[in-house]
Amino acid sequence: MNLYDLFVKPYEDYTALQIMLETTGTFFGILSVYFSIKKNIWVYPTGIISTLIYVYILFNFGLLGDCMINIYYTAMSIYGWILWAKNSEDNIHVEVSWATKKEWIFASLLFIISLLLVTVIYYYKPYIDNHFSMTGTNLGLYHLDWANWLDVFTTSIFLVGMWFMAKQRIENWVFWIIGDFICMPMMIFKGLGITSVQYLVFTIMAIMGYVNWKKSFKEKKRIKS
């Protein structure tokens, strides 16, 4: 399989609107990560625009299970936006720190709960994708391929990453790095070549974000001492 088959051929049957929407969603997704690196609260409004665009794209592709997960991401972004607004002195930027042991325990529970929740969504996905009709629908996990199982795993990783980000914890970047890297081949498999490139950019930016937040914390600690 060559680059044409991976990144161009899937789009031959797409409309100009679909391509424009995916490109726009990718742009705002990258912009959101940029603002996150800068510890700027605009990470959330730009991120919400991106997830809402993908809600629309996935809904129109009939991928209602994936669509519901992106609604979940949007809700988490609103939660993070509220927390950052409360903890920002200038209403734009926030201070960052490492997570506590108690927060790690909560994050572990969040990961497990998310795994169960997303698995349940995929169990009912045939029913959801059939527009909530049981006619000719068989419930179960039989329809899942390797990309879907990876999606279950990465969704849980991203949820924990989003929670750590909302709490302004440096560890959030570790989860983004792992999840973004895994998502690259998954998106190519789903025929979303532009989005797979987005995740490559996300991986690089997440590494930059980790370095930037860690450096910022060290400088703040040095000034206080």
UniProtKB/TrEMBL annotation:
Principal place of residence: membrane
Spans traversing the lipid bilayer: 15-35, 42-63, 69-85, 105-124, 146-166, 173-190, 196-213
Subcellular location: Cell membrane
Membrane topology according to the record: Multi-pass membrane protein
Role of this protein: Required for nicotinamide riboside transport across the inner membrane.
Assigned protein family: Belongs to the nicotinamide ribonucleoside (NR) uptake permease (TC 4.B.1) family.
Name by which UniProt lists this protein: Nicotinamide riboside transporter PnuC
Lineage of origin: Bacteria, Pseudomonadati, Bacteroidota, Flavobacteriia, Flavobacteriales
